[in-house]
Specification:
This protein has 121 residues and is mostly helical. It has one domain. Helices cover 64% and strands 0% of the residues. It is built from four helices and no strands. This is DUF4190 domain-containing protein. It comes from Actinomadura rubrobrunea.
């Protein structure tokens, strides 16, 4: 029984806990993009972000955030995939023994194509 002017107590509703997965998906997708520079570390981050975003979008209450995470993670995976394809194609060209028959020619190709790589003796 309630008194006039007062409401009965109702316990707070429990959240499903999926909002954190959606936020984690966005964070991994966004942080994965600059992490691509660190030896491709962004690719596994974006892959985990994509999985979390898909799970959060299908089960969680924050669908908009989850979709943003899926988009960010997919974009990071696409950029990383293109960069990886480009780098591996250039490395395969430098390793072709028909075009660069000796070790010195291959080394010169690597130095020309990958100026950011430091030569070690």
């Amino acid at each position: 029984m309630t008194m006039p002017g007062y409401q009965t107590f109702s316990p707070p509703t429990a959240s499903t806990g999926r909002g954190g997965m959606a936020v984690a998906s966005v964070v991994l997708g966004v942080v994965g993009l600059p992490a691509l520079v660190l030896c491709g570390l962004g690719l596994p981050m974006a892959l985990v972000g994509l999985v979390l975003g898909i799970v959060a979008a299908t089960r969680g209450p924050r669908r908009g955030t989850a979709v943003a995470g899926v988009v960010c993670s997919t974009l990071t995976l696409a950029i990383g995939g293109v960069a990886l394809f480009f780098l591996l194609t250039k490395a395969a060209e430098c390793g072709d023994r028909n075009v660069y028959p000796d070790d010195a020619a291959r080394r010169q190709c690597v130095e020309r194509e990958f100026p950011f790589a430091e030569a070690r003796s």
